[in-house]
Amino acid sequence: MVDTRESALAAAELVQDAGGEIVGKTRIQKAAFFLERMGLGSGFDFYYKHFGPYSDDLARALHFARELGLTVEEDKKAAWGGVYTVFRSADNVGDGLDEPRHKVLGIARNSNPVALELAATALFLRNEGTAEPWSEVRGLKPTKATQENLKLAKKLYEELREVEAPVELPAF
Amino acid sequence: MAVVQRIRDPIHSLIEFDDSDVEAALWQAIQTRPFQRLRRVKQLGFSDYVYPGASHSRFSHSVGVFHTARQLLRVIQAKSQTPYKRRQAETALAAALLHDIGHGPFSHAFESVGKTLGLKLARHEFVSEALIRGSEIAGVLNQLGSGFADDVAEVIKAKGPRTLYDAVVSSQFDADRLDYMRRDRVMAGSKHGGIDYDWLIANLDIAEIPIGVDDVGAGTFPTFVVGPKSIEAAEAYVLGLFQLYPTIYFHKTTRGVEKLFTELILTVFRLALDGAANETGLPDSHPLIQFAIDKDNLNRAQALDDTVAWGALPLFADATNAIVSEFSQRLLERKLYKAFDLRAAIKKKLNPEMSPLEMEETTDRIAAKSLEKIDLWMKDKGHKVLKDDGIRSPYKPIEESNGPLNQILVKTQTGSVLDLAELSPVVSAIRPYKFSRLYFDPGVEDYTSDLNSIVEGECHG
């Protein structure tokens, strides 16, 4: 997606459909990834990075959404020492009637972002042909993939699978 | 250990391989077909259109990364508080040597074609993993133990540090960056971006740092940090990377050549996929056509390299397709499109008394609005105008949240670990490098005044 306006609107709609606010670049990236894989997305292309599936196109679109005044970003200091970004809608950019998108984005918005990253990574690996994605997630992310976080990630994945969407998420 | 093999290198002078099992195996890995192919993939793609000396290969870079990785492993051996893990170290060393094995011809341009057409084998990480796990390289690596090749592939696939040893392959101080930033400037003949490498390595240390995702912490992690005596060397390292982006990696002319090549190959692949390969000037048996129509075949991908693409240019020149014919001639004769620098055009129209930060922020806003208009304006221009934009921080983006893994960290005299930006006003002032450019041939049609009008309208809108 190279058109500046079109991609910025798609990014702004993500924020709006998440209820007007979503906390963190990982939450928004992984939420958009699930939307794409469930047939509910806007055409963002994802590839694998250290923190799981990632879209340069979406990062670029978010930048333009902010510069065009469609969203507002606020950086905040996290207790763990990093900086995270809060994305807010600045304008009404869509009809907000797409129920499955709302559900997916609502689940992502309220999720633990570590679990969301693990769940998105597992789905990415599964789509790439990995037979045992959860086991590979443990290998790729040993620090984050604690037993507790994996349990949360699997529960989150099942929650997302229950959303009725044009493309059903695979069971694994 | 006895030295059994030697390579002379313009950056490291002498790179030696000893008779240890791991170095003997890695020397064998260098002799494999996939690794020898790297001699025919240039490290800097089309940079030699600007810097004629910058024609070095990914082969020499990869061997340099191996050498640098060995130095970083010595830092771990000397400074880690935990016992040295030989198997993990050897895995990291092999991953460092093999990290670029999957790059296609003119790496980044080819990846861009692959992204547009959804070609899995144009993604170098995917190909690297497949070659390490499944080609003759796997046989060589597995001499070092069962599953060794898979372990090496996992290090590359992780695309970031999972252990301290992985930091040798992917971190702010990884062997890849420490080699390419030194090699590329020397080969380009540039004096930008010099660093005090020996002092930096001598002062590297290890510290446990927190990691997290968005607003939630996710434990701690050991990685490389610099000691208090090398703050200036670390500053030069960040500044060096910052300077190399506009001057070499994102040079406007180099990127312009990449855009022409990308459009050329995209057109060729589309024609081949539509059964119209005869319009490209290439025979059906040409490796580029064979790859286009058999895109999931690893052997077809491995048959491609820079020399195959260069060799195709004179054949493309006879193509019946106008874009293929014109763009190949342009590449052969260096008759390039000229760049219109959107951000520079905007800055010229802004109040010069603005602070640098205000100037950047205002330029960001006007550039976004101008690009909206330019997208509409471009709709009937076809291949006569090409667009390129991007943003790059001097830091390696390992985390999505901007946490310590994305920073250059300094272990102070008191043992606390701080972001270099907190200690260095120069580093804290650095902003990501951004560019927005339009390319066209002013000799055919000069769009400068059209574009300036759009900018003018947005500056006063």
Characterization of this structure:
- The complex is a heterodimer of chains A (172) and B (461).
- Chain A contains 7 helices and 5 strands, in the order αβαββαββαααα.
- Chain A has helices spanning 4-17, 25-37, 56-67, 99-109, 113-127, 133-140, 147-161, and strands at residues 21-23, 47-49, 52-54, 71-77, 83-89.
- In chain A, strand 4 and strand 5 (83-89) form a beta hairpin.
- The longest helix of chain A has 15 residues, at 113-127.
- Chain A starts with a helix and ends in an 11-residue tail after the last helix.
- The mean pLDDT of chain A is 93.
- With 461 residues, chain B is α+β, with helices and mostly antiparallel strands.
- Chain B is 51% helix and 13% strand.
- Chain B has 21 helices and 9 strands.
- Chain B is globular.
- The model of chain B has no long low-confidence stretch (mean pLDDT 95).
What's the topology here?
The complex is a heterodimer of chains A (172) and B (461).
Chain A: H1 4-17, E1 21-23, H2 25-37, E2 47-49, E3 52-54, H3 56-67, E4 71-77, E5 83-89, H4 99-109, H5 113-127, H6 133-140, H7 147-161
Antiparallel strand pairs in A: 1-5, 2-3, 4-5
Helix pairs in contact in A: 1-3, 2-4, 2-5, 5-6, 5-7
Chain B: E1 3-9, E2 13-18, H1 21-30, H2 33-37, H3 58-79, H4 86-98, H5 107-117, H6 124-134, H7 136-141, H8 148-158, H9 175-188, H10 197-202, E3 204-213, E4 216-226, H11 231-249, H12 252-273, H13 287-293, H14 298-302, H15 306-316, H16 322-333, E5 338-341, H17 342-349, H18 356-378, E6 386-392, E7 409-411, E8 417-419, H19 420-423, H20 425-428, E9 433-440, H21 448-459
Antiparallel strand pairs in B: 1-2, 3-4, 5-9, 6-9, 7-8
